[in-house]
Each structure stands twice: as C-alpha cells, then as structure tokens.
C-alpha cells in the first residue's frame, strides 16, 4: 500500500526558503548518547524541538520512532521536506518556537523531547546569516529572520549597555574595553558586517597563539540577546515538563556553561525551591518532576576527533515523574540578567 504523504506545515506561510539544501555534512553532537537517553524508540513519538538539519530526527526515524520536528528558522525547510519524502507520515515538521512546543503538539501522546540548544553548524557555515566571526556577512544573527539584529544592538546600545550585555551573556572580562572600542568606531561608520566587528575586537584585546578567537564571547553574547535564547530555553524546558506525562523523557544538549547551569538547576528541584528558614514551620518537601536518566555526558575522544565543535557540549536528561508541572519561573535557575542602562 502506498504510504500517505507526510505533513510539512509552515504556519508563517514561508514556502520559498533561501540557503543550502539537505546534505549529510552536519553531524549531530552526542548522537548515540541522546538516543540512549530517550529510551526505546520503536513506535515512540518524539519531539525534536530544535530540528536544524534533522540529524537527531533522522536517527530516531531510522530506529522506528514517530518524530515531530520544530524549528523557527525557515531555512531548515528543505531538510524537513527531505525527511518527509523518505519517512512519510512518521515525520511531521512544524515551524515555530520550541518554547511553545506543548501547544504546538498538544493533541499527540509524546514519549520524549530532545533539545539541542544554541546555534547549529549549518547556521555558522552560512556567512549570510551573520553568526560566524570567521565568515564575511551582514551582522544579523536572527534565527527567525525577524526582529532586532546584532547590528541594531551594536550600533544603538550605549557603551554601558553594550558592556553589560557582553559581560552578562558572553562572560567576557574585557567587555568594557570592547564596548568602548565599538562606540568609538561606530561614531565614524556604523558596524554592519561580521568581519569588521571581529577585526575590531581582535585589535582591541589582542589574540594569543592557540587561544580561541577574541571575538568568540562577544558574538555569543550578541546572538543570545538577539534570539532571546535564555528565555527560549527556560520556556522550552517548562513546556516539555507540561507536555510529558509520567515516564516521558527529556534530553537537552547545551554548548556553554550558562546554558548548562540553567538545565542542571531545572532538573534539580532543590535548586529552584524556596529556601526554608529554621525559625519558621517547615513546609512539606515538593516532589521532583524529574528523575535522572544518567549523569551528565560529554563527548568522548573519538567524537572530538571527528567533530571539534563537540568539545563544549553537555547532555543532561531526565524522566518525568507523577509530580504536577510547575509554573514557569526563572527563580533559582541562574539565568543571567541584562539590564539596559546598567554600568
């Protein structure tokens, strides 16, 4: 019997997608470990909340899963269409934000959710997206191609705001020097391309042999601010908690310490519960919404040899308990704050 045509839905009506087409050049980080964390996949419905080039989705489909892919980046549609043509109605793509994944797939029984946080290698490799300080392109960084761009922030924030943003979201110790240099440079000419900003930062703080590029942390900070990535991460974690019922599994791959701290504290209810005073009546302990699947996982030497981008990746995972889902809250998660006007 002929397989039914798969669904590839785009509620934003974007059918003409720019960018590169499907290929196999983008390796999903910690793939075997993610699949193990999600448990038995044959017949299970899994939400790939950060679809990207579809690496996790393909691997799960190959193992018999039913997969719902979600992504707000319109350039991923060719990858989704390719999986739809191969796997029929076992694969569905929905254009949207993973912070809303529970409402996007509310009518389906879901056994697991996987989130791969941050920018993908596919986005880094597309110079026209403006994510990479190694490739020429407009200073954009918008995953959804709408809203405030990195160039807007670089050219409109005052010096104190820029320094605060770069320090809070990039953990860059030289944030004040970089902000001062940006403000001085843009007084003559607006900074609108990636290489111009990268060269300015390198000139400002120097570059040590063998060290990471001096623009790394500033570009990270701008990307996080442009895409409100911490808000998305917190929203996505709690959305998965609402969506999954007892026994459901959540696997989250992060790529820097700020993200990992949020995920770690989300899974550990002792970090997010209000502290109790010994001088007041003790409140009954709140039951945890998550039981650990395994300890945090880092990439091994074999994967690092194949894919150096995996060096900063960490996988954390949990199994949903019977405890009711919590209200969305940043309390106790250690979410970095950026406040306009802060010195």
Description of the molecule:
With 343 residues, the protein is of the alpha/beta class. It folds into two domains: 7-116 and 229-275 and 282-320, Vaccinia Virus protein VP39 (Rossmann fold, 3-Layer(aba) Sandwich); 148-225, DNA polymerase, domain 1, CATH 1.10.150.170. It is built from 14 helices and nine strands. It has helices spanning 31-38, 55-62, 77-87, 101-104, 121-125, 150-156, 159-170, 175-186, 194-205, 216-227, 229-243, 257-267, 269-272, 301-306, and strands spanning 7-9, 45-48, 66-71, 91-95, 112-116, 249-254, 290-292, 297-298, 314-320. Strands 1, 2, 3, 4, 5, 6, 7, 8 and 9 form a nine-stranded mixed β-sheet that branches. Helix 2 links the parallel strand 2 and strand 3. Helix 7 crosses helix 8 (175-186) and helix 8 (175-186) packs across helix 9 (194-205). The protein is globular and about 60 Å long. The protein starts with 6 loop residues before the first strand and ends in a 23-residue tail after the last strand. Residues 1-21 have low confidence and may be disordered. Its EC number is 2.1.1.199. Residues 1-25 are annotated as: Disordered. One of its GO terms (molecular function) is rRNA (cytosine-N4-)-methyltransferase activity. Pfam families: Methyltransf_5. It comes from Pelagibacterium lentulum.
What keywords describe this structure?
nine-stranded mixed sheet; Rossmann fold; DNA polymerase, domain 1; 343 residues; alpha/beta
